[in-house]
Amino acid sequence: MFKYIQNIIILVFVIQNAFCFAQDERRQTNDTLDSDVVNIVKPYTPKVSDAFKIKVIPRLDDTITNTKKKISYNIFSIPVASTFTPAKGKATSLEKRKNEKTYNNYASIGFGSYTTVLGDVFLNQAISRTEIVGGYISHHSSQGEIDGIRLDNNFSDSKARINYVKNMRDLSWEIDLGIQHQIYNWYGTSSQYTEESMFESIDPKHVFFTVDLGGYIDFDNGLLNNGNLRFTRFSDDYESSENRFYTQANLNIPISDDVVKTDIIIDYLAGDFDSNYFTNDALEYANLNIGITPIYQIKKDEFTVNLGFSIFYLNNIQENKNSFYIYPKVTTFYNLVNEILVPYAGIEGGLKQNTYRDFASQNPFVSPTLLIQPTDQQYDAYIGLKGKLSNNISYNLRGTYYAENDKALFKNNTFLNASSPKNYTYGNSFQIVYDDVSTLSVFGEMNFDFSRNFKVIINAEYLNYSTNNENEAWNLPDFKASLFLDYQINNHWYAGANVFYVGERKAQETLEGGLLPINFITFYNLKSYIDANAHIGYRVNDKFSVFTKVNNIANQDYQKWLNFPVQGIQFLAGASYKFDF
Question: Does residue 347 lie within any of the structural domains?
């Protein structure tokens, strides 16, 4: 039995070895890869899914951990004698100002010396959520009564305007109509030429009348940004008339991802005078100006540059002449030190349309015999520095050089001694002469905002002129300065002042030759002057206030224009009232 079992074991062992040998032989036959061991090493990147949680809760059989150990604290304090008592904290409160009620309407009336009357009424009323209608009436007159003047020297200026405003979702527009009536007198006769008998034959009254109609439109989005249109009719009591049609459009022209802002101007002017100064021949003028000004802005950090130019086409319709003008339009500024130091520079130019109305507004003593033509402002080159010295003080310093062809200058008309006289030919009126003028200007200004209730502005400008044909830049000052002060004393009292200083000016007086065709010319240096004015007011309540004004405090009888002295010290008192309908 034992042998039988032994033989079986030997047989099984032999069969097993034979089977393994066969398997190895088969592998060698079919597998072509070497049996080298290759170890591949890869960093393990764990995943959330790889994490597992041990669900076995450990047991602690130590019962000592459940007991709390008692700890006692001892403080060894030593008394110290001290008189210090801490103060209670108190929150600082901001100053609050009572919200002042605003009113839509305003009326004011005042009376003063030289029989002066000053009145204003401003009205503004919303007729719906999107519509507003408003207007104003204003009047200022005085009887003159200037010492030593034989002719009437009163003046009057009355004007009224009504407007309608419509605010819509994507645009707003306004239309308005205005009228103005003005009366002035040519009272500035020459003392060395005028004889006593001449005063009886002079009627110095000169009346201006203006009517203008226009409006604007403003778009929130789109190619057209805004535009305005205005027609003005200006005339006087000497059969002079002037019509002006002016329109301007501002467009945002997209170029790639940028925008070029472009202004387009169309300015048509036509007028006539019943006669010229020396003869009875009529004067006529008509000009059409068309201009386009594209400007491209570059901004990088604190540096900004505006690159552009202007092209103007001028059609002198009366003389049938056409001209083209090209001007630079380049400005830049750099915020060097966080609005403390901001240097800036630029060079600009343009074609200025001169009008009879503009000349009469600057100098109401012009004669109705003017030569009207545009001024070629070749360039205005400037460099400056502005910024803030503190939160309350700001400054602006600028140097400028102008070059202008056909610059308009006010010059005294010739005293007609031999020709047929008229009311404005006694050397008591002004003409317009044109010359090529270069101007050097140095300007400085300081703004002081000491508080929300007290503000002061001071500026000064030095000017030097160079003319081409004329002997001087007539009636232009060599120095100008001004001071503006506004002080809110308390809730009831307020005050203000302004002071103007104007330097010397050059003027010329001409007497027409009698027997000999030679004019007698006299040159003058008009003295510099200071014009100081002040006002003070008291608010009785939110609606009613009273005020008083004093003008020409120094009581100087200075001459702003040759032979035209001004009124002395002037007092005026009045009241104003705010209201709603």
Answer: yes
